[in-house]
Design a protein that fits this description.
Layout: H1 2-28, E1 33-37, E2 42-44, E3 48-50, H2 54-66, E4 69-72, H3 84-96, E5 116-122, H4 130-138, E6 145-152, H5 160-167, E7 172-173, E8 177-180, H6 181-186, H7 188-202
Parallel strand pairs: 1-4, 1-5, 5-6, 6-7, 6-8
Antiparallel strand pairs: 2-3
Helix pairs in contact: 2-7
Bound molecules: flavin mononucleotide.
């Protein structure tokens, strides 16, 4: 009998521990800040073949510093080429056609939970990649603080802030950040400092 009681106590403790774990996990995702980003691996300009995208490196730094949740914009059908030149051709064609490539929605969190959304992507031909416009036009980001960030190889922020404000007029767009893609791979300490300084100035 004593043996059965012991087993019941151990099982109860196990259930309690599992419940506590669940509560902790929910608290971790209780943030009202979200980082949304698009980024490519494969062959990229000036850095060769990379297995973590430049913009995704900056996105991680922002999420780490602010405790934000994250969502990566991934194409529903990933037809983007692995080689740089082929990718630039497709991206240019999409821009000329004002294409609206579909993205995967399964992991998209409930956006109403967030008051601040950092939104990042590489500069593609002087603009947001077209898939980001699909996102802006499909999702409800109205009434939120939106903070753009980008990685690039010379073009800087490329008007990402103004284009974002035009795409989502009922939002408040804060000062954006532009980082060299090459620095994300090769000078991460510098990038980390730049990201931290920018976040501090914004009050995060
Ligand atoms: C399709 C394409 C177009 C690009 N156009 C520009 C551009 O107009 N200006 C610029 O500075 N960099 C441009 N780049 C370089 C990328 O912005 C840069 O390598 C960026 O860091 C890549 O980020 P990712 O690894 O997150 O995708 C382009 C790269 C690609 C693949």
């Amino acid at each position: 009998m004593k043996h059965v009681q012991n087993i019941i106590v151990i099982m109860l403790m196990f259930v309690l521990l599992m419940t506590a774990g669940t509560v902790c996990a929910q608290t971790e995702t209780d943030s009202d800040i979200l980082v949304i980003y698009f980024s490519r691996t494969g062959e990229q300009y000036t850095v060769g073949v990379i297995d973590k995208g430049n913009t995704s490196i900056v996105a991680d730094m922002i999420a780490e510093a602010t405790g934000a949740d994250m969502f990566e914009v991934l194409p529903e059908e990933d037809y983007y080429p692995y080689t740089y030149n082929a990718l630039t051709d497709i991206a240019l064609q999409e821009q000329r056609e004002k294409a609206r490539p579909a993205y995967q929605k399964e992991e998209l969190p409930e956006l109403s939970q967030y008051s601040t959304v950092f939104i990042g992507a590489p500069v593609w031909w002087g603009d947001w990649p077209m898939i980001m416009y699909t996102f802006f036009e499909n999702e409800d980001l109205a009434g939120k603080k939106l903070i753009p960030f980008t990685t690039h190889e010379g073009s800087g922020l490329s008007g990402f802030d103004k284009k974002l404000a035009a795409a989502i007029p009922e939002s408040e767009v804060l000062t954006g950040l532009a980082i060299r893609g090459n620095d994300c791979q090769n000078r991460q300490d510098n990038v980390q400092k730049t990201v931290s300084d920018w976040l501090s100035k914004l009050g995060y």
